[in-house]
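Technical note accompanying the year-one report. For the benefit of new consortium partners, we illustrate the data format agreed upon in the data management plan: each record pairs a sequence with a structure-token string. No post-processing was applied to the example shown here.
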Amino acid sequence: MNLNYEHLPVIIVALLLLAAFLEPIVYRHKKSWAAPLVIASMAFFALSSLYLMAAVNYHGPFNYYLGGWAPPFGIELEIDYLAVFLLLTFSVIGLIAIVYGLQDLKHGLKDEVLGWYFTLYLLLMASMAGISVTNDLFNMYVFVEISAISACAIISIKESRECIEASLKYLILSTLGSGCILLATAMLYMITGHLNIGYLNDVLPRVMSHYPNNILISLGFFVVGYGVKAALFPLHVWLPDAHTAAPSPSSAVLSGLVIKVYAAAFLKVFLKAYPREIFLEIPVMEIVLFLSVLAILYGSIVAMVQEDIKKMLAYSSIAQIGYVFLGFSLMGQRAVAGGLLHIFNHAMMKSMLFLAAGIIIYSTGIRRIRDMKGLGVKLPLTMGAFTIGALSMVGIPGTNGFISKWQLALGALDLGRPIIVVVILLSSLLNCLYYMPIVINAFFGVKGEPELEIGKVPGVMLYSILFLGFGIIFFGIYPAPLLAFLQKTVTAIL
């Protein structure tokens, strides 16, 4: 193994944790260094993830044993195609969001808590990196807990009544989800004696007939646990308030990344730990498929009646996470690839939409959708980027959202499920009904208050959403390299 990159996964997590520890100290004694430290840490994360992706694509996946202890006694990291895909997605979007946030957070947070926000942000990124690379169920649970606590804290850090209420609701439900994950992990350990995902996949077929109830209960606990974390309908009730109340960079990361890492953890557990024959006897994936369809329809319908722009985007996220679980639950090659692709594409789309909404709130104070008439004239670049994101959410050809939905539809047809294609088309129509009026009114509506003053938009905030908008179009026109990489990913998983 090439020493140039085999230690990088551990270094990434350790460096992010170290930087998180240092941030409050640096902010207290040398405030001007705090922002460069978080940016440098995230830039290292992004560059290292890109290097790891190139290395895995060229040399193939590899495993790393912490302390030199091989499983089943030690903790194993598996740096495969899925891990590096997730690392790159989380690091790049996370870097863009925090660069944007350097200006926006000064506007929305008290000065004394900004250093603590950087700490929480780095802890969140470290936990998502850990979930992506670990091949150990208990290790994954530990990172899930770090992620949950950090996510709650970056919501409540604004200290407003609505933020405290939203974070408390999230904390209570997330704790219940964590309990379910821990109980499911204990169930599997009790009947197999292993926590390593690879060992579980080997042993579970031999113990299925002896402990059917344990396996059934563990499946149920994992569905509920990761369903709550990822806001899968009907376990989504914490999401709208949390994403609406949080600062805009937090909303972008929560919707674009955090709920996706739990969906990815679901994929790792269900398709890598459990053998496929279990799902022939226990129709858990059919239940997840049904919940995914309900999530897609429910999220789209409820988003249509929202008046607050961030709450509308939050309900839209419920529908979009439904697409991800839809692809995973179908368990076909093209369908799973479509679900993974939607993790990446939706991270770009929804992060950009939340950041664009943040610019609107930052410069005008407007949150209600009906007050956004004529904003396209006064904020042309912001609303232009928002339009690109909206078109991608609808699934217009030429955007990356179309590629995701196309792959999911083809995956459903491969498995003889044409009704799923109908659901995808219906959802796209519903997306059109609540996104397009915003765009049309912004550029062609007449603003009732022409004297509305527009504050100056910091360049770093504007460039962040324009970069994401470019990515949406680029991967909509030229998706071939990403699709080819995801085919390798899915082949390795299935």
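Partners are asked to follow this layout when depositing records. The CA atoms of residues 303 and 481 lie 33 Å apart.
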